[in-house]
Amino acid sequence: QKEVEQDPGPLSVPEGAIVSLNCTYSNSAFQYFMWYRQYSRKGPELLMYTYSSGNKEDGRFTAQVDKSSKYISLFIRDSQPSDSATYLCAMRTPYNTDKLIFGTGTRLQVFP
Amino acid sequence: SAVISQKPSRDICQRGTSLTIQCQVDSQVTMMFWYRQQPGQSLTLIATANQGSEATYESGFVIDKFPISRPNLTFSTLTVSNMSPEDSSIYLCSVDDPRTGTNYGYTFGSGTRLTVV
């Protein structure tokens, strides 16, 4: 079983839709959670980061962590064609701060 | 955030040869990381490079295959040696993101897309 599972998609939605991207994980020691956005032929770009459980909002983006279910989500409101990219979740434990564990990424396409 | 320049951006190489990938950062950073991104798979950490010490390799990656140099606080190289088609992948350099501190994520370069034929 992979430590982090993420549906690869692709997920195709119309402009203006609310997008929900999710990851599940198996290691209960993960405490730091991140979402990266990766455009085609570019490196991943840090989008959101949260510690432990709870929600964090930044503009149209909301990151949510449910540690009891080992489940994290990224919500995108009012999605735009410019949001079309691959979204990767990543996480790490408090004691192994060098190593991020990534999901495989979900490809999102927002059409006008 | 730090700006990373990674070269080359892509290359097509013959099997059995070696390719050295360069990573230049516009600010001094303590740790630099090399990742591999294969199609349909998650980013995998190859090794961590600290200036002035040997790189630390993850399970499944060895120094003979992926030698790394870290001559100063702004530069690192990763060499992919004796390449085979299985080494075809995207190789990414990353550093601690000063916006978030060491507990969170990294800034990544644009990557080197390597094809071995």
Layout: helices, strands, pairs:
The complex is a heterodimer of chains A (112) and B (117).
Chain A: E1 4-6, E2 11-14, E3 19-25, E4 32-38, E5 45-51, E6 54-58, E7 61-66, E8 71-76, E9 85-92, E10 101-102, E11 106-111
Chain B: E1 4-7, E2 10-13, E3 19-25, E4 31-37, E5 44-50, E6 56-57, E7 68-72, E8 75-80, E9 89-96, E10 106-108, E11 112-116
Parallel strand pairs in B: 2-11
Antiparallel strand pairs in B: 1-3, 3-8, 4-5, 4-9, 5-6, 7-8, 9-10, 9-11
Structure, described:
The complex is a heterodimer of chains A (112) and B (117). With 112 residues, chain A is an all-beta fold. Helices cover 0% and strands 54% of the residues of chain A. Chain A has strands at 4-6, 11-14, 19-25, 32-38, 45-51, 54-58, 61-66, 71-76, 85-92, 101-102, 106-111. The relative contact order of chain A is 0.34. Chain B has strands at residues 4-7, 10-13, 19-25, 31-37, 44-50, 56-57, 68-72, 75-80, 89-96, 106-108, 112-116. In chain B, strands 2, 4, 5, 6, 9, 10 and 11 form a seven-stranded mixed sheet that branches. Chain B has a four-stranded antiparallel sheet with strand order 1-3-8-7, with no helix packed on it. The N and C termini of chain B lie far apart (36 Å). With 117 residues, chain B is mostly beta strands. Chain B contains no helices and eleven strands.
